[in-house]
Amino acid sequence: MTRRSKEPVERDTQLARLVLALRSQGVTDPAVLASIEKTPRDLFTPDLFKERSWEDSALPIACGQTISQPFIVGLMTQALTLEPRARVLEIGTGSGYQTAVLSRLSRLVYTVERYRTLMRAAEARFDALQITNVITKFGDGFLGWADQAPFDRILVTAAAPEEPTVLLQQLKPSGVLVAPIGKGPVQQLCRYAGNGEGGFKVDVLCEVRFVPLLEGVAKEL
After folding, report:
1. Per the count of CB atoms within 10 A, which of 33, 127, 140, 144 is most buried?
2. Helix 70-79 and helix 30-38: axis angle, to 10°?
């Protein structure tokens, strides 16, 4: 057996171990686990870290950002309680990995990224995977995407310093928003569930570490 023929077997083994680890940590939604299984994380990981693609850990990507730990991706996706017809807003495209997981569970994913370099790289990955239900925007995540609101679900993949009022205003009355909240190095992962009357039930899921959500768009050389 050649090295090339071994690689898919090793990859499948590592993926199976990852999924079992996620399940043991509380990511039990079959649809979420299936989406993670079908999304090749190594495609979203920089070459320097390819061998660590299937580890349950966050990894560095370009522009000082990260590709999130698979457990956190699974937990946040599960917390959204997605439905197949959902329109989802994602703040912080990053590598596009979380976006790709969401795309398999919803009708449309609108994703906003402040780094043009990251956005273009993510778009290329979506094309390679023939993902056609993702709409990208280079812009300020603090502002959301008002022209396409309201959304059924909103996911924020960077730490908002405080309750994201502007984004909550772009959520349907019975929608769900999941975001890390806090100014320090450790934040609280919060789930906002609309009560249908303009209010929200807020649950803290766990402590997390995310890069901060920054205003404006990045100036890149």
Report:
1. 144
2. 140
Structure tokens at 58: 């966050």
Question: Which amino acids are annotated catalytic?
Answer: 68
pLDDT digits (tens, 9 = 90+) for 112-155: 999 999 999 999 999 999 999 999 999 999 999 999 999 999 99
The CATH class, in words, for 3-208 is: alpha beta
Q: 119-123 — which CB contacts under 8 Å span 24+ positions?
A: 119/93, 121/62, 121/95, 121/96, 122/93, 122/94, 122/95, 122/96, 123/96
Cα–Cα distance, 207 to 213 (Å, whole number): 16
- Tell me the per-residue pLDDT of 52-93, one tens digit each, with 9 for 90 and over: 999 999 999 999 999 999 999 999 999 999 999 999 999 999
The domain ranges of the chain are 3-208
Q: How far is CA 52 from CA 38, 40, 55, 81, 164, in A?
A: 17, 13, 5, 29, 33
- Please list, in sequence order, all residues whose beta carbon lies within 8 angstroms of the beta carbon of residue 148, skipping any fewer than 6 positions away: 87, 89, 110, 135
Q: Quickly state the pLDDT bin for 10 (edges 50, 70, 90).
A: confident
Residue type at position 20: L
Contact 110, 88 (CB under 8 A): yes
